[in-house]
């Protein structure tokens, strides 16, 4: 599973001005990632506003990305929620042709115990036709999947191949790294910790900002994987303000401003999210101008 080393991006779902899925924009975005040196694409993650898409819209996006990508980059599809039985049925019934792995977030809202989290992912692992990348994001789910649970799943199920770790806790990442199976991927789920994760021995990142600035972000991660930390940190410092800005009013409102700036899509989001404010848009565009030489 070396295809999940490097920079993955969590694709947005672009909407037209009427709020419908914009397939043409999605095609442009996929081509932009490939041209920018991104290593793999994640479809239907949180950044895709997957919670607001219908089943038919998800299938439309899934097929459009697959067709446009045409086998050039590995594809990951997001299947997550807090109804374990429904997810098992989704895994059994969905045609994952052209996709390499599943990204599955720890159950939100229900706040299960660590044993509950383990049993949830055990059920998914037994049902999934594809390898699974776990996703821990306590700020969204309301519970933290502890390193002991991650490591238990990594050891017990061969098809659980990695974790997108977005706790923001470097000590937690280090505990996983020090004790994980050698072939288990530790992937940063935060743009802020991406370089530090790589330099500590992780496999890379699933990024949000990287989608808008793929050349710079993928170069930073590549340099980190090579151990060229000084140059990689220079890029990190240049991108740091952008990492803060795009999350200031919620994801993906911020990254959609960047995609609109580059004429890839509109900045339309679906309720309960709203578009970035005029002030934030102005500051994001100022940031993009300031980083032009690094990101071009």
What does this structure look like?
- With 296 residues, the chain is an alpha/beta fold.
- It contains 14 helices and 8 strands.
- The chain is globular and about 50 Å long.
- The chain has an 8-stranded parallel β-barrel, surrounded by 5 helices.
- The model has no long low-confidence stretch (mean pLDDT 96).
**CA-to-CA gap between the ends?**
30 Å
Please tell me what the overall shape is.
globular
Stretches where pLDDT is under 50 for at least 5 consecutive residues are none
Q: Calculate the mean pLDDT score and round it.
A: 96
Gyration radius, to the nearest Å? 18 Å
DSSP helix count?
Answer: 14
* Main beta-sheet strand count, sense and barrel state: 8 strands, parallel, barrel
> Hey, roughly how much beta strand do the residues contain?
5-15%
Percent range for helical residues?
A: 40-55%
What sequence of helices (H) and strands (E) makes up the elements? EHEHEHEHEHHEHEHEHHHHHH
Summing up helix and strand content along with how strands pair, one would put the structural category as alpha/beta
Strand order of the largest sheet: 1-2-3-4-5-6-7-8
Keywords:
alpha/beta; 12% strand; 296 residues; 14 helices
Chart the SSEs and their pairings.
Layout: E1 6-10, H1 23-35, E2 40-43, H2 55-69, E3 75-78, H3 84-93, E4 101-105, H4 114-127, E5 132-136, H5 138-141, H6 147-156, E6 160-165, H7 170-179, E7 185-188, H8 194-199, E8 204-207, H9 209-212, H10 214-226, H11 229-247, H12 253-261, H13 278-290, H14 292-295
Parallel strand pairs: 1-2, 1-8, 2-3, 3-4, 4-5, 5-6, 6-7, 7-8
């Amino acid at each position: 599973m070396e295809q999940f080393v490097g920079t993955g991006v969590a694709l947005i779902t672009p909407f037209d001005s009427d709020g419908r899925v914009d397939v043409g924009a999605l095609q442009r975005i996929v081509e932009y990632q490939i041209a920018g040196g991104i290593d793999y694409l994640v479809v239907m993650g949180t950044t895709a506003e997957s919670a607001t898409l219908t089943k038919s819209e998800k299938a439309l996006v899934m097929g459009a990305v697959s067709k446009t990508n045409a086998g050039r980059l590995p594809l990951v599809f997001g299947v997550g929620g807090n109804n374990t039985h429904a997810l098992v049925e989704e895994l059994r019934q969905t045609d994952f042709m052209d996709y390499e792995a599943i990204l599955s977030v720890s159950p939100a809202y229900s706040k299960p115990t660590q044993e509950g989290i383990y049993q949830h992912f055990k059920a998914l692992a037994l049902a999934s036709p594809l390898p699974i990348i776990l996703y821990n994001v306590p700020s969204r789910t309301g519970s933290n999947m502890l390193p002991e649970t991650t490591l238990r799943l990594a050891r017990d199920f061969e098809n659980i191949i990695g974790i997108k770790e977005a706790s923001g806790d470097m000590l937690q990442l280090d505990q996983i790294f020090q004790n994980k199976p050698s072939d288990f991927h530790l992937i940063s789920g935060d743009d802020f910790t991406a370089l530090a994760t790589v330099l500590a021995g992780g496999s890379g990142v699933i990024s949000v900002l990287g989608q808008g600035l793929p050349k710079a972000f993928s170069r930073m991660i590549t340099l980190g994987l090579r151990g060229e930390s000084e140059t990689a940190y220079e890029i990190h410092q240049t991108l740091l303000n952008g990492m803060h800005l795009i999350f200031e009013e919620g994801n993906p409102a911020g990254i959609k401003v960047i995609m609109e700036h580059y004429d890839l899509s509109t900045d339309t989001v679906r309720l309960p999210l709203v578009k970035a404010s005029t002030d934030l848009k102005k500051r994001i565009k100022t940031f993009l101008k300031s980083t032009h030489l690094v990101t071009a």
